[in-house]
Specification:
Number of strands: 18
Shape: elongated
Low-confidence stretches: 1-80, 227-231, 704-717
Radius of gyration: 42 Å
Strand content: 5-15%
Strand order of the largest sheet: 10-12-13-14-11-15
Helix content: 40-55%
Distance between the termini: 71 Å
Largest sheet: 6 strands, mixed
């Protein structure tokens, strides 16, 4: 019997158009590629063909694929989502091919005749009447038998209330033994035995699990290598990126402000790379490394990006965390590969961000150090200044934890220059603000110098956030330009926290908060050595029910004893106001007590400001055990000295509390007046507080609702 089967093109790998299987000749052909395999055995090669088709890039014949530079391993990598999509597509095609193959094999080995399943009683009736001419018995894996019979003449059976003629039928037999065969022979029936599974299906079922396991393994390997060009062997390769920023993303030294000294040091390095003869004729050598030190947000990474924008040499960028893996030796291998790439591109610059992730002190921690990190650090030390000189490769590194770095990493010959990038002064803050407002429409009333003077202690990142928040405030009120009001609102949000106007507070608690905050504010206004009061509010901000903020008139780097004693009095004035007015104390002053106690102990133990203890330091050294420091903290003073220190700290705090109570008692009417006005207005700034103290009347309160705007066209409500 001849039959043919055609499979749709979607189930087969391109460029095949159709697959035709002829049962008589057992010929498997692919129309466009002319693959011919004798017999059904050719079907087992289908997965191999499909895998090769899947691994072939879908590129037009008249267009060559893009060429990659073999000397540069930093070519763009596939996006993670695209890579996962390719894997899932390949897996889907492979699975469809396997299903199609099983369907083919099942169809080939199936019986083409139309059989009707009959009951065991009907089978017994056919057998006893001698109607069965021939039968094929198939044994399954469940040790039962399937009986496929052919009748001598068609017989009628009842199905769904209708008579139906049967020539071929099948049924299940539980046991076939010699007695059964004797019965068959006595009825004149001939029979044969056949295995239900052919050799090809058994082979397919035995190979398919291993193929699936191998496919899963390959998918896992591809995910581990993150789309790398060299497969699994790229695990120990460097992950440094070759930066080449152009256009709007390019950062130069013109975009960096408030770090003039650091810019000078780095500009000199770039000048050395551009014109080395200027320095070499006087015997100067190129520095091996520049270490940028400073608090978070001061612009260390921005300086490195500016170097990449200014330098006309290759610039490699990598994070210190990219070296460290759970497998020992991988980090050292990546360090070697990084410097091999750098030496091929010399002269060049290599920027390592957060170098403390790999440069911590060796042997640190309980029971020794981390072998992987220490091997990585050892390899970095050798590459920077070891037996083999790497001339032409300059390392620029950044960290905000210089105290944990290994001493061998900080010595000259490795990091010749250590540049401190500190928080900017008022001039630097003004320059940073000018950089960040370049593309922001400002109102004519905005004075950047005033904003800079009112933001002492803020870093470059804080100022960038300030400008962005001001722009967002202006956008929320549908303004055309950014005004001084927007900058003040943004500054209050950053310094004091977000307003929580929806928080429900009882009238009694609100009154207590008003007196508490006004105690701080009046002490700050009336004491001569205090910082000026910027704003006082009883609107909950952040985690506080009320906030009193102060802004110094100028940047200060050292503080006098009088200033610190005044700060302690101001901190305790809120608690004193509650005690005077309500005759009780609550938990609202807990943070004030912590800060006041810390200042008093530092006066005695660190700054030598106690006449009783004298000019001696007893600072408690909070050293990190896991950085190789001391596990036990030995005390360098006796029990008697500790008792004297505790008594002196208590005396300073007690005297400050008495002074704050006396100050508010002398100005009790002013305390009641200002507290009631604060309850009414909820917010008072420094100028309004001065008017109240001087007996002037305040202007009527204006209820501004700049953010209560209906959605504009095209916006989402």
């Amino acid at each position: 019997m001849k039959s043919s089967l055609k499979i749709a093109d979607s189930l087969l790998p391109k460029p095949a158009e159709a697959v035709t299987l002829t049962h008589d000749f057992r010929t498997f052909s692919m129309a466009s590629n002319n693959y011919k395999f004798p017999g059904v055995a050719g079907l087992t090669l289908l997965p191999t063909i499909m895998m090769s088709e899947m691994n072939t890039p879908n590129t037009p014949k008249d267009k060559k694929p893009p060429q990659k530079n073999p000397n540069n391993s930093n070519f763009p990598k596939d996006n993670g989502d695209q890579q996962m999509g390719k894997v899932m597509k390949s897996l889907f095609i492979f699975g469809a091919g396997i299903i199609g193959l099983i369907f083919l094999v099942t169809t080939i080995n199936s019986n083409d005749r139309a059989e009707i399943k009959v009951t065991y009683s009907e089978y017994t009736s056919f057998l006893n009447s001698g109607k069965i001419a021939f039968a094929t018995i198939e044994k399954s894996q469940l040790n039962d038998f399937e009986f496929h019979g052919t009748l001598r003449q068609p017989a009628n059976v009842t199905r769904d209330g209708h008579e139906k003629a049967v020539t071929y039928f099948s049924t299940k037999l539980g046991v076939v033994d010699s007695k059964t065969e004797e019965t068959w022979a006595s009825k004149g029936m001939s029979w044969s035995y056949k295995d239900s599974e052919t050799m090809w299906t058994l082979l397919l079922y035995s190979i398919l699990p291993w193929v699936l396991i191998f496919g899963l393994f390959m998918i896992m390997m591809r995910r581990m290598q993150n789309g790398g060009p060299k497969g699994i062997f790229s695990f120990g390769k460097s992950r440094a990126r070759l930066l080449n920023e152009t256009g709007a993303n390019r950062v130069t030294f013109a975009d960096v402000a408030g770090a003039d000294e650091a810019k000078y040091e780095l500009e000199e390095v770039i000048e050395f790379l551009k014109e080395p003869s200027k320095f070499q004729k006087l015997g100067g050598k190129i520095p091996r490394g520049v270490l940028l030190l400073g608090p978070p947000g001061t612009g260390k990474t921005l300086l490195a990006r500016a170097v990449s924008g200014e330098a006309n040499v290759p610039f490699f960028s990598i994070s210190g965390a990219d070296f460290v893996e759970m497998f020992v030796g991988v980090g050292a291998s990546r360090v070697r590969d990084l410097f091999e790439q750098a030496k091929k591109s010399a002269p060049c610059l290599v920027f390592i961000d957060e170098i403390d992730a790999v440069g911590r002190s060796r042997g640190a921690g309980l029971g020794g150090g981390n072998d992987e990190r220490e091997q990585t650090l050892n390899q970095l030390l050798v590459e920077m200044d070891g037996f083999e000189q790497n001339s032409g490769v300059i390392i620029i590194a950044a960290t905000n934890r210089p105290d944990v770095l290994d001493s061998a990493l900080l010595r000259p010959g490795r990091f010749d220059r250590q540049v401190v990038v500190d928080r900017p002064d008022v001039k630097g803050r003004e320059g940073i603000l000018k950089v960040h407002v370049k593309h922001i429409p400002l109102s004519s009333e905005v004075n950047l110098e005033t904003i800079a003077r009112g933001t002492p202690g803020l870093s470059g990142a804080d100022l960038a956030n300030l400008v962005n928040e001001a722009a967002l405030f202006a956008a929320r009120r549908n303004g055309e330009t950014v005004t001084m009001f927007d900058f003040e609102s943004a500054k209050d949000k950053i310094l004091m926290g977000v307003e929580r106007k929806s928080m429900v507070i009882s009238d009694k608690e609100k009154e207590t908060t008003a007196y508490h905050e006004m105690g701080h504010a009046l002490a700050g206004k009336l004491l001569p050595h205090s910082n000026p009061v910027h704003k006082v509010t009883i609107i909950p901000r952040g985690r506080a029910l009320g906030v009193t903020s102060y802004l110094p008139t100028e940047d200060a780097h050292t503080y006098s004893k009088e200033f610190i004693e005044t700060q302690i009095v101001v901190l305790l004035a809120g608690r004193a106001a509650e005690k005077i007015v309500f005759g009780q104390m609550n938990t609202g002053a807990s943070s004030d007590l912590v800060r006041a106690s810390s200042l008093a102990r530092k006066m005695v133990c660190e700054w030598g400001m106690s006449d009783v203890v004298g000019p001696v330091t007893f600072a408690t050294k909070h050293e990190e055990v896991f950085l190789g420091r001391e596990i036990a903290q030995p005390r360098d003073h006796s029990e008697e000295t500790a008792r004297i220190i505790d008594n002196e700290v208590r005396r300073i705090l007690t005297d400050a509390m008495k002074q704050s109570e006396q100050l508010l008692q002398d100005n009790i009417e002013l305390l009641h007046k200002t507290s009631k006005i604060l309850l009414e207005r909820e917010i008072l700034d420094g100028a309004e507080l001065d008017q109240i103290i001087n007996g002037q009347e305040l202007a009527p309160k204006i209820n501004l609702k700049p953010l209560q705007n209906s959605p504009t066209k095209g916006s989402i409500a």
